Amino acid sequence: MRVLMCPDGFTGTLSALEASRAMADGWRRTNPNDELVLMPLSDGGPGFIDAVISASTAIRRACQVLGPTGELVMAEYALLDEHAWIESAQACGLHLIRPDVRDPGSTSTFGVGQMILDALTHGVRQITIGLGGSGTNDGGAGMLAALGAVGFDAEGKLVDLTQGGLALEKIARIDISAATDLMRNVEVIVATDVDNPLLGLRGATATFAQQKGADDALIMKLEGALERFAAHCGKREDGKDPSVALGAGAAGGLGFALLLLGGTRVAGISTVMDIVGFRAALEDCDVALTGEGCLDDQSLHGKVIVGVARECATAGVPCVVVAGQVRLGKRDCAAAGIDGAYSVVEFEGIEQSLADAPESLSRTVARVARTWGRR
């Protein structure tokens, strides 16, 4: 029997590679003679660059940039000829912010812009930017500032676009011409982990700001600030409104800013699958095991699990999910193409799952293998 281990990372506990290894260890405990294929995936968030480099001849480049709270961090991206792949979480990821100081009203994407500038010094003409796992909610204003954009208040005074989403409450005018000119001859591909728009009930703030540290009061202020920011940014040169586009709300609205500059949105998971040769690997498999930290409604909107499930349905291969927690019912799972969903926490308990994440995942998969392995 041939089994494909293709999880995303389990946020806060395991990277995608670590999760795939733990899954394989667990499966072997029950079915030691099966052939296992490890293919850790990413939807554009953490692990994006690792997936690109592991499946191509791209080289890893490092540059020092400002992190989401203004501290210096080392960020890496992939480079091959005139194409660069940037993982935005390297510069603005939630994992870079201590839990006790998380504040999406003040965090910035400025470092992402610095990564773009560094890539441009190597003569790139195409940049694929993976979005996901951010700790920001600034609509990409910081990134635009790094590329030369400037904002002004009602009195004509400069507004610091690097100070986070709340600073955008003061915006009365924004000039992005320098950023637009800089990127005019560069093809920008925006690989997003979600398909949310910028604003509204499914927007960046309403959907994701709370998990980044915002309370209800801050969420209301940030929504208003992003609405004001988007209104003054206006439409793209081709007349399209980027604020309503799929993926505009990714990475706290960073998707919006990249689309504003002329970027084209693609699903991050589809991009990674193309790079790693997922469909070819799936053809010879009898079952695929995927997973992430929490299987919930967000998993159905551009995340790894739903991408795997769709490909499995097309190939006629069962898709089995082992997640830290499962918050979808059987009907929703079936509608998404998921043949079985199992919770590590349900088997192991929350304390054990966090205390020893690899072993807890392995033990859970060992149980799952009794059902889905060949008997």
What is the secondary structure topology, with strand pairs?
Blueprint: E1 2-5, H1 16-30, E2 35-38, H2 48-54, E3 59-66, E4 72-80, E5 83-87, H3 89-92, H4 110-120, E6 126-131, H5 141-146, E7 150-152, E8 158-159, E9 173-175, H6 177-183, E10 187-192, H7 204-208, H8 216-233, H9 254-260, E11 264-267, H10 268-276, H11 278-283, E12 287-290, E13 294-295, H12 304-315, E14 319-323, E15 325-326, H13 330-335, E16 340-343, H14 344-348, H15 350-355, H16 357-372
Parallel strand pairs: 1-2, 1-12, 5-6, 6-10, 10-11, 12-14, 13-15, 14-16
Antiparallel strand pairs: 3-4, 4-5, 7-8, 7-9
Number of strands: 16
Average predicted confidence as pLDDT: 95
CATH topology-level fold name of the largest domain: Glycerate kinase, domain 2
Number of separate structural domains = 2
Cα separation of the termini: 10 Å
Fraction of helical residues: 25-40%
The CATH architecture of the largest domain can be named as: Alpha-Beta Complex
Largest sheet descriptor: 6 strands, mixed
* Class per helix and strand makeup: alpha/beta
SS element count, helices: 16
- So what's the CATH class of the largest domain? Alpha Beta
Indicate the low-confidence ranges by residue numbers: none
Shape: globular
CATH homology superfamily of the largest domain? Glycerate kinase, domain 2
- The whole-angstrom Rg is 21 Å
GO molecular function, one term: glycerate kinase activity
InterPro entries: Glyc_kinase_flavodox-like_fold, Glycerate_kinase, Glycerate_kinase_RE-like, Glycerate_kinase_sf
Keywords: Kinase, Transferase
Pfam families: Gly_kinase
